[in-house]
Amino acid sequence: MTTPSHLMAEPRAALGWRERLARVPMPSEKLTIVLLVVLVLVVAILTITPWPVGAFQDDAMYTVLAKSLAEGKGYRFLNLPGEPNATHFPPGYPLFLAALWKAWPSFPDNIVLFKFANAGLLALGALGAFQLSRRRFRAPVPVAAGVAIIGTLSIVVLLVTGIVMSEPLFLAILFPALLWAEGAVESGRWRDAAIAGALLAILTLVRTIGIFAIPAAGLVLLYRRRWASAAILGVVAAAFLAPWQWWVGAHQGEIAPVLVGKFGSYGGWLADGYRSGGAEFALEVIRRNALELEGMLGYYFKPVVARWPRVLIMVTVAAFALLGTKRFLRNAPVSLLFLGLYTLVVMLWPFEPARFVLAVWPLWPLLVGSGVLAAWRLASEVPGTTWSLGARGVVAALVLAFVAGSARYNAIGYSRKWWVTVQRDAGKRAKPIVEWAARYTDSTTVLATEDDLIVYLYANRKAVPTSTFMAQQRVRALTDAEDVAVVRDIFTTYRPSWFIVGSQQGVRTATTLATGPDSMLTLIGRTPDVLIYQRTTP
Q1: What separation, in Å, do the N-terminal and C-terminal C-alpha atoms of the chain show?
Q2: pLDDT at 27
Q3: Which pairing describes strands 462-464 and 521-526: parallel, antiparallel, or unpaired?
């Protein structure tokens, strides 16, 4: 009897997970891109609120600068007496808002337009994250879409998208810039290097910290012996950035020293903090920033009250990220080096690190995901079937733990609409102050208030802060005596007629200045959140 030929064939080896995944029908890439962009755009639009600009201070500063540019008054802080030229923020995002302001000049109605524009920019950021995953990591279409969704629709990102902040524009430019830089590293073509240099410089003109992508690209080009391309990238980037650096050098002295932390350029402010604090200051900044990041990210991945599970899950995620660096370095060396330099600066920067992390949030799922693949591969190579299954089970359990935790965190955030909280609280606090200022003061009055930018925008009154912001305050608060001295300096420099405070420190300072033989303030009223003092001495 003859055995059928198909039964005589040698048995096929069991298909691996990559082969099985390759055989699964995948959605069209173009269709996925359309669905991804529409999804992110719709969700971002649904998070837009009618609350006023000014919840984060920075959003109001961007709005003031956009107003100044749109009205042809130059790049100035119109809210401050004397209307000094602005050097605090680079002009990229204010210029973008100014173009929108020209199209719709009715304030505050145009704030809604700004928020809708941010929703569109976030959708572009999602597209960029998708393209980086596909082009540099060859991720399957569903995986690349998942990375983009995690990177843009996480509740922590939406918190700053529905506010007039620069992060969405930064994300929209970040991925094209990185893709061009990675392409320049591979091709060595001068044209690619020039375009990459221009895009990275534009990125820097949106958020200053983006400048670290330039040395990241340059160093990788030098390592690959692309000498001419490295030089061209640097020269083009410098040419784009030179006018802004000239502007900062020419005008950085226009802000009084007492307000440099909030309105002046970063360089002198940062140098003063490290010069006066030294190594002890640096170590304390790192410690505080690390604790805040652990608190924020630990709760994101494990939203429980107990601290030890959050620390454990953060160690796990950090281990996966570390494992992912090898694959990241092979596929996107410029992006990895930029992320490393960026993180180092964030850890050394004397300010809350959360906002800096959010600006590059979509890069983290790629890094951690690369680490998960590396861990799974290592577990699969463990000798012995039983041991290998056990190792893969451990990897799967760890991944499930932080994925489930982050899913729960986002579910809670969406159900409670966390993106509304900060805006609502700021709006409720500031509304009575704005109404009082518009009713009881005239347009020549200068006020000192903790909501100075909101008061300018909505009551059209010049306003200054009620205290200072120094780099040293990252590690220690001002003493009462120091704050009193600061406020006296503000009164001497800007001569406000009113002092409106609600913070504990501000109230203590106001009480000191309203008592004693040399008192200079008189309490004349209050709102539910603040005390209103009038200046009684010239």
Answers
A1: 117
A2: 64
A3: unpaired
pLDDT, tens digit (0-9, with 9 covering 90-100), for 250-301: 999 999 999 999 999 988 899 999 999 999 999 999 999 999 999 999 999 9
CA angle 90, 153, 200 (to 5 degrees): 30
Those residues of the chain that have pLDDT short of 70 are: 1-27
- Cβ neighbours around 523 below 10 Å, total: 13
* CA separation for the pair 252, 249 (Å, rounded): 6
Do 114 and 284 touch, CB atoms closer than 8 A? no
Contacts with 123 (C-beta within 8 Å, 6 or more apart), sequence order: 37, 38, 40, 41, 44, 152
Strands 531-535, 498-501: pairing kind: antiparallel
Q: Looking at residue 24, what DSSP letter applies?
A: S
The Cα–Cα gap between 474 and 350 comes to 5
Judged by DSSP in three states, 401 sits in helix
Tokens, residue 193: 């290097």
Instruction: Return the amino acid letter for 434.
Output: V
**Complete DSSP assignment for 234-271:** HHHHHHHHHHHHHHHHHHGGGS-GGGHHHHS-HHHHHH
Nearby residues of 65 by Cβ (< 8 Å), 6 or more positions away: 75, 76, 77, 86, 89, 91, 94, 97, 98
CB-neighbour burial class of residue 488 (10 A; exposed 0-12, middle 13-18, buried 19+) = middle
Measured distance CA(329)–CA(337) in Å, rounded? 8
| CA nearest to 470, candidates 193, 284, 306, 277 | 277
Q: Which residues 6+ apart lie within 8 Å of 419 measured at CB?
A: 47, 49, 155, 158, 159, 161, 162, 413
